[in-house]
Amino acid sequence: MSASSWTWEDHRVLPTWAPWAAGGAGVAAGLLALLAGVALVVAVLVGAAATVVALIPWSLAVEGSRRARDRMVTLTVTGAFALAVAPLISLLYTVVSRGIDRFDGALFSESMRGVVGEGGGVQHAIVGTLVITGLATLASVPIGVMTAIYLHEYGRGGRLAKAISFFVDVMTGIPSIVAGLFAYALFALIFGPGVRLGVMGAVALSLLMIPIVVRSTEEMLRVVPHHLREAAYGLGVPKWLTIVKVVLPTAFAGIVTGVMLAIARVVGETAPLLITTGAVTSVNANPFGGRMENLAVFAYNQYSNPGVPRDPYIARAWAAALTLLLIVMVLNLVARLVSARFGVRQR
Q1: Torsion of CA 92, 98, 104, 110, to 10 degrees
Q2: Quick one: which of 62, 114, 221, 255 could link to 152 by a disulfide (CB 3.0–4.6 Å)?
Q3: Whole-number average pLDDT of the chain
Q4: DSSP-derived 3-state class of residue 149
Q5: Full domain range(s) for residue 128
Q6: What does the pLDDT read at residue 65?
Q7: Residue 94 carries which DSSP code?
Q8: How many helices (H) and strands (E) does the chain have?
Q9: Does 347 map to a domain?
């Protein structure tokens, strides 16, 4: 900043505790509004307005209009972030608070075979979820990764690549129920109508996973610097070996993250599995051996069709939802650990 453009207001700044004080005033105003009996949404709006009223005029008087506008934008962005995070926090709180009552040893060691009313667990649903999702992953990851490699490394600009890219975009937007109907129709043609198998659910979920894996892998391949490929080509390394030894290891961390996102996307799907796998009360680890339960369908059935008394069924539904939430969390933690351990860092 030149001396001619310097102004006195550039030297005046609010103390570092000023935003915290304004935020505290907003929290106090929101609590008072709650104590007065207003709705929670109205109390939040009152607190936000109190924060703005406490900070912006103070900043305008001390720092000038430029920094006051900057603080106003900062408050707006912070409020938008809080508004986006609030549903997630509410969801986590609701699932944990309602599912923790049945989160015990029996939940994981028992199935629902012969259980009416209280008792029982989700062992059979956990086994089914892991088997179905595992099969879907085994089918989707090789297809998705190899498709992405072809699109980015071999077929760029070609007609076939453009057609494949178009169909991948279409598959990304199809409703999950359509995938379930396709899998059911495919197996019904082979085994006859009314068939329900775990492998049918895996096929339906793989249709939802493949476009996610393709797009995430393709993006990671774009991030790999071209000079790494050129260096390998300069040493006489074939293109396929360059992809295997240079490109894929460099993009490995991002590919694993994309695969985990795809798994998290489908592990909680309910509609396609209602059609394809059906429901069963006992453990079935054979995807080709009849109906197979999973956590999403189990929670849906327990909540939508409770017996008498109603409370045990609702408690099991929330406990299954909490278990599913923890599985997704573990998958994301594993993805981060794998990325940190095996990801190639460029210097």
Answers
A1: -100
A2: 221
A3: 86
A4: helix
A5: 109-342
A6: 86
A7: H
A8: 14, 0
A9: no
